């Protein structure tokens, strides 16, 4: 028997991984905030769609 994915944990984990990646990038190099400003909304929409897809009842 296969359990359902914990959607809240998945989304929180993805967001924290992105935040940690940006923090490491800022610590070891220069961060181009215009690129992040463009990528962040797309990433949030993609994560939201993933969450909606995972919570959809079969």
Question: Which secondary structure elements does this structure contain, and how are they paired or packed?
Answer:
Blueprint: H1 7-28, H2 33-55
Helix pairs in contact: 1-2
Number of strand segments: 0
Shape annotation: elongated
Structural class, from secondary structure content? mainly alpha
**Can you count the helices?**
2
Q: SSE string, helix = H, strand = E? A: HH
Please tell me the total number of domains.
1
Please give the oligomerization state of what you see. single chain
The proportion of residues in beta strands is under 5%
How widely separated are the two ends?
Answer: 16 Å
Low-confidence stretches: none
**Overall radius of gyration:** 14 Å
Tell me the helix content.
over 70%
Mean pLDDT: 81
The main sheet comes to:
none
What would you note in describing this structure?
By secondary structure, the protein is mostly helical. The chain has one domain. It has helices spanning 7-28, 33-55. Helix 1 packs antiparallel against helix 2 (33-55). The longest helix has 23 residues, at 33-55. It is elongated. The model has no long low-confidence stretch (mean pLDDT 81).
